[in-house]
Amino acid sequence: MSSLTITPQGPLRGTVRVPGDKSITHRALILSALAEGPSTITGYCKGQDCLNTLRCLQDLGISIQELPDSLQVFGKGLWGMTEPTHPLDCGNSGTGLRLLTGVLAGQDFFSVLTGDDSLRSRPMGRIVTPLRSMGANIQGRKGGELTPLAITGGALKGIEYSSPVSSAQVKSAVLLAGLLADGPTTFVEPLLSRDHTERMFRYLGIPLEITGRKLRLTGRTPFQARDLSVPGDLSAAAFFLVGASIVPNSEVQIPNVGLNPERTGILEILKEMGADIQVLNRREQAGEPVGDLLVRSASLHGTSIGVERIPKTIDELPIFCVAASIAKGDTTVTGAQELRLKETDRIHAMATELRKMNVSIQETADGFIIRGGSKIHGAACASYGDHRIAMAVAIAGLAADSPTGIEDTACIDTSFPGFYPNLLELLTSSR
Ligand code: S3P
Predict the structure, then answer these.
(1) Residue 221's pLDDT is what?
(2) C-alpha 313 – ligand 1 centre gap (Å)
(3) Cα distance from N-terminal residue to C-terminal residue, the chain
(4) Cα–Cα 20 to 30 A to 411, which of 6, 122, 174, 210?
(5) Domain extents for the chain?
(6) CATH class assigned to 22-229
(7) pLDDT at 429
(8) Region of residue 224 (phi > 0: left; psi between -120 and 50: alpha; otherwise: beta)
(9) Do domains 3-20+231-429 and 22-229 have the same CATH topology?
(10) What is the pLDDT of residues 320-353, one digit of tens each?
(11) 172 CA distance to ligand 1 middle (Å)
């Protein structure tokens, strides 16, 4: 089993390029497959999660050529996919599985979606319920709450759905099914979640009305393929934003990072804590805001995050805990119970691992209470097979007084192949 040893060794300095945005890459692949004609996706994420979605689409009869720096997808239109001969394996990816379920519910064939041990324990009722009310025939373990999901695709009808959770995966599964459905689909969520699907619909000319948190889509509108350029992943950049903030004398540039306003909670919160982060060259790329980031080390102080800021910070909360551990004063996070339903229970995992490193951190039902400022010790840590836990613990290790070992780190490749070599380069270029 793979492992990493992090030896604290001074500042992070230089430029690091992060992988393409994982959320946008999934959507680019799926929507390019449903479009009419060929298109090229540049800057895509080569993490295992996105490669699994790519393979699933190939198994559904979509031709995708992998060129060194781009993908060429030959879209076959809304109903051009063909029945897969074996179960589709989404690996570790909730986004891949949930979005594909929305698409497959409306196809005229049988399919089965499955994933790894983690994905097979994650809740699917949140997508199965609205899709069934659109007429989808989906079966699964525990009445459809757990994968594998078996889908007998067929005609769908539009619905009006008010989601009990703010989840871009639920929203996107319903919108993708709505694309294939007869009649309009409306969708409302309690707090706005990331809107990459909406932005990509607009970029591709798919008619979608947006009124605040309410979306209305008229289904069965074919659309032409269009080249897509994927910005760097802010969720990957966040590890270096925190690393450079907490290790004295650091200065790191991270060019071409996606700045979708429903994702930038970590930037806003770190700045409130005293971080020195500049956003340069703001621009737009395929309907998404993008910029270059410059971060220098700074002295941080504690803060509190409530439920209203959780959706735009959700994937960054593990690395945020590391920033809060170093910061002076107390930090509280509430309303983050969704974190318990990710690749692992991220509240429990971060509390357990940071405690091993001498951090005073208390797990609550929906978040954390962290008393910052204690000296971090190196420790023998676990990743729980979760890429974001592995990388967050690695960054905490940079601020420790002795080496930190992390077991089971191959999972980092699900979103950030090259994380460790990139980190080493920033550490060595400071010498
Ligand atoms: C994602 C949505 C979020 C996020 C996940 C990616 C997406 O999950 O945590 O990493 O690409 O739609 P939820 O929709 O379950 O909140």
Answers:
(1) 93
(2) 11
(3) 31
(4) 174
(5) 3-20+231-429, 22-229
(6) alpha beta
(7) 75
(8) beta
(9) yes
(10) 999 999 999 999 999 999 999 999 999 999 999 9
(11) 10
